[in-house]
Automatic annotation (TrEMBL):
Bilayer disposition of the protein: Multi-pass membrane protein
Organism of this sequence: Strombidinopsis acuminata
Transmembrane segments: 68-93, 113-134, 210-229, 291-314, 334-352
GO cellular component: mitochondrial inner membrane
Protein's UniProt name: Uncharacterized protein
Every ABC transmembrane type-1 domain range: 72-352
Length: 654
């Protein structure tokens, strides 16, 4: 009996309370914590509804043979770990009997056994954690890369309908969740299962009657755990509502302090606050009462179970109950059977957390798979290129192109656009903002496909062309120069990593990057984050150089100067004009002009209105027509007049 109490003292009442779903009950203590099993606390979190999950094995999509091997080794470690945890109790029971019988040799044998179990536990524990985590870390890296690869290869349209800004965060969060489900949580789960199975099996083998008795008591304990879990949730809710109300009251007073003071309402407000706090306290006390009752009840059941088990054991022993081999049952047998089953029960309770981790890994996997499995229609992963390759863009034709953005299908952006641009032409697109100019450029880059009509490049339907070939032939400069935080040279070479020094010098001259010469480090100068070490005009010319070094046959300029101040705009415009006059090259340029005066001498000006080309021709012709273009020029001229006070209308050269 003394020995039995010694054992009981080693599993004292714990103070960690399960708060989720009643899946777990109290029963943590020094000895169990030392064994590292029951020390997992659970936060009182509500599992949000998870609509989509993937099959667990799908999470291993990127696992190599080594990862799988490591994972299995880890699980093997977990199984052995679970068995050794339970088996320790068995040896404990045996050793008690041997001490009782004062059989020194046998006792020593048992002590040695403890040591062996310790060694096994050491290695299996090491295996469990090391291998599952090694496997998990390796897969995590591959998953991250796969995730990002899948994201950057999505169609441009995909980014219109997904929150690209929150992607880095959600990638991280999802990968972490998946990793948890691939790593040591699974190890814990397997260990718990192993403990449960070992505990029950051993219990049934040793003394099935005793085992059944303990199994019958376990649900009673679960009830207590359930009461406590509910009470914990109640406390949280009560706190949230009443303290929330009190907080709101406090905030209101602070905001309306002058009014409160002016009406001498200070005491009134304090009383109101006090009343709310009192309510919060009442609620808190009620819930704590429930926790206390639940806790007491569980402990009572636990100790009751101890008592009942030992009474039952003693009763059976007295009635001459013998083991299968005819030996007498002893105190140690009661003990080991009782604790085998109890450990199994604990293990069952512990499964909630890892199961939840696996669940949330599967849900995160669903988010990952949504990206991995959404096959882009336009973009093809590198190496899976299909379609006809072209090296030069010569003619561009739009035939009754209809287009709506996938993110806003109700707005008809292009409404039967028809236009033709020949090789080497320098053309401009003008029109009110929102008339669809940038959309035309997006369609030429094939960021999107038209809903109806056709875009033809060199007379070939753009849908049958390889996007890589097409985009290699196009240089693009947008409104805001986008530079990467590296050297000028690297930024320019981004356009064509294979460019030679000679090419670099040439584009430097064409894009008028003379300002670089004045810098100490020249081309190697760091541009700063987002290129912020340069003026807008300088950045834009670097961006232009990047587009030119591709040796494109088509240059797209989308309001390339609109974000610049007057002086920078002039400089960049000069550069563009020069390019436009480079008649010895066959470079075709399409320029969206935000200031009409800058594109007067283009070969053709297309005037867009509400998604259709309403007029086209050279400046002079359009002015004589006195149509939409004329009206645009006049209104812009008037606006510029007001702005600058100069006679801008005259400048348009009517
Ligand atoms: N990515 C997008 N998603 C949804 N609507 C868009 C998108 N881009 C542009 N639009 C809409 O399409 C219309 C035409 O835009 P755009 O071609 O950029 O006009 P412009 O360049 O002539 O000012 C506008 O009404 C704009 O709001
Ligand atoms: Mg635009």
């Amino acid at each position: 009996a003394i020995l039995a109490r010694a054992v009981l003292a080693q599993t004292p009442t714990g103070d960690k309370v399960a708060t989720r779903g009643g899946a777990c009950w109290t029963g943590t203590g020094s000895s169990s914590e030392a064994m590292g099993m029951f020390s997992k606390t659970k936060e009182g979190e509500e599992a949000p509804p998870k609509p989509k999950t993937v099959a667990y094995h799908k999470l291993f999509k990127y696992a190599s043979c080594q990862d799988i091997t490591f994972f299995l080794l880890g699980l093997f470690g977990a199984v052995v770990q679970g068995i050794s945890q339970v088996y320790m109790i068995v040896v404990f029971g045996d050793i008690m009997d041997e001490i009782f019988l004062s059989n020194d040799d046998e006792t020593l044998e048992m002590v040695r056994m403890f040591m062996y179990i310790g060694i096994v536990a050491f290695f299996s524990g090491w295996m469990q954690f090391t291998f599952t985590n090694l496997s998990m870390e390796a897969q995590k890296q591959k998953l991250r890369l796969a995730y990002l690869t899948a994201v950057v290869h999505q169609d441009v349209a995909w980014f219109d309908t997904h929150q690209a800004g929150s992607l880095p965060e959600s990638i991280s969060a999802n990968i972490e969740k998946i990793a948890l489900g691939l790593g040591d949580k699974v190890g814990n789960l397997v260990m718990d299962v192993s403990m449960l199975v070992t505990g029950l099996t051993l219990g049934l083998c040793y003394w099935w009657k005793m085992t059944l008795l303990v199994i019958a008591i376990v649900p009673l304990m679960a009830v207590g755990a359930g009461v406590m879990a509910q009470a914990m949730t109640d406390i949280q809710n009560e706190n949230q509502t009443w303290y929330g109300k009190a907080g709101a009251c406090c905030e209101e007073v602070m905001r309306a302090l002058r009014t409160v003071v002016a009406f001498r309402g200070e005491q009134l407000e304090c009383d109101r606050y006090d009343a709310l706090l009192a309510e919060a306290k009442k609620g808190g006390v009620r819930a704590q009462l429930k926790v206390g009752i639940g806790m007491g009840y569980t402990m009572a059941i636990m100790f009751g179970a101890y008592g009942l088990a030992f009474w039952f054991g003693a009763y059976l022993m007295k009635n001459g109950e013998t083991k299968a081999d005819g030996d007498m049952f002893m105190a140690g047998d009661v003990m080991k059977t009782f604790f085998c089953v109890l450990f199994g029960g604990f293990a069952l309770g512990m499964m909630g957390e890892p199961l939840q981790a696996v669940d949330s890994a599967r849900a995160a996997g669903a988010a990952l798979y949504e990206v991995l499995e959404s096959k882009p229609l336009i973009e093809a992963l590198a190496g899976q290129e299909y379609g006809e390759k072209i090296s030069d863009v010569k003619t561009i034709e739009f035939k009754d192109v209809m287009f709506t953005y996938p993110a806003r299908p109700e707005v008809q952006v292009l409404n039967g656009t028809t236009l033709r641009i020949d090789a080497g032409q320098k053309v401009a697109l003008v029109g009110e903002s929102g008339s669809g100019k940038s959309t035309i450029i997006s369609l030429i880059e094939r960021f999107y496909d038209p809903a109806a009509g056709m875009v033809l490049i060199n007379g070939i339907d753009i849908k049958t062309l390889s996007t890589t070939g097409l985009r290699a032939a196009i240089g693009y400069v947008g409104q805001e120069p986008v530079l990467f935080a590296t050297s000028i040279k690297t930024n320019i070479m981004y356009g064509n990593p294979k460019a030679t020094e000679q090419d670099l010098l040439e584009v430097k001259q064409r894009a008028q990057l003379d300002f670089i010469d004045a810098m100490e480090t020249g081309m190697e100068t760091f541009v700063g984050a987002g290129g912020n070490q340069f003026s807008g005009g300088q950045k834009q010319r670097i961006a232009l150089a990047r587009a030119l070094i591709k040796k494109p046959s088509l240059l797209l300029l989308d309001e390339a100067t609109s974000a610049l101040d007057n002086k920078s705009e002039k400089m960049v415009q000069e550069t563009l004009d020069k390019l436009g006059q480079d008649s010895h090259t066959s470079l075709t340029t399409i320029e969206i002009a935000h200031r009409l005066s800058t594109v007067r001498n283009r070969d053709v000006i297309f005037v867009m209105q509400k998604g259709v080309v309403v007029e086209s021709g050279p400046h002079k012709e359009l002015m004589e027509k006195k149509g939409t273009y004329y009206a645009l020029v006049a209104s812009q001229g008037a606006a510029e007049n007001e702005e600058t006070g100069s006679a801008a209308v005259d400048n348009t050269g009517v």
